[in-house]
Amino acid sequence: MKFLRATQDIESRLEKVSAPLLILHGAEDKVTDPLVSQYLYEKASSKDKTLKIYEGGYHGIMEGEPDERISAVHSDIISWLEFLMKDNVFYNW
Predict the structure, then answer these.
(1) Which intervals hold domain Serine aminopeptidase S33 (predicted)?
(2) When you count CB atoms within 10 A of the terminal residue's CB, does the N or C end of the chain come out lower?
(3) What is the maximal distance between C-alpha atoms in the chain?
(4) Residue 48, number of CB atoms within 10 A of its CB
(5) Please, are residues 43 and 14 in contact by the beta-carbon 8 Å criterion?
(6) Which CATH number is 39's domain given?
(7) Which domain holds residue 29?
(8) Please, which residues bridge with residue 53 across strands?
(9) SS3 state of residue 21
């Protein structure tokens, strides 16, 4: 019951998320449905937000996955951070 209340509390506050947001999710995740990440992406009020769904990826997309997928995730994170720094997104937040 506590978990359900905590989840509802978080859901009610998603629109308050305004910081730059990078959401990464494995499409084959059996622990957390990728639709939860899609919901977070849609509800967050962040001006700069990115959602990446990795086909064939599971829950731990940076661990226990094929090397090429882990490399792709690392590359996406670095590219996103470089973009934020280049456009000074953090300074405008």
Answers:
(1) 2-66
(2) N
(3) 45
(4) 17
(5) yes
(6) 3.40.50.1820
(7) 2-92
(8) 25
(9) strand
Cα separation of 5 and 93, whole Å?
Answer: 30
In 10 A of CB 61, how many CB atoms?
Answer: 22
Residue the block writes with tokens 């059996």: 30
Tokens linked to 18 = 């305004």
- If phi > 0 it is left, if psi is from -120 to 50 it is alpha, else beta; for residue 24 that is beta
- pTM, whole model, 2 decimals? 0.82
* pLDDT tens per residue, range 56-81: 999 999 999 999 999 999 999 999 99
Residue ranges in the chain modelled with pLDDT below 70: 87-93
How many domains are contained in the chain? 1
Q: How far apart are CA 53 and CA 76, in angstroms?
A: 11
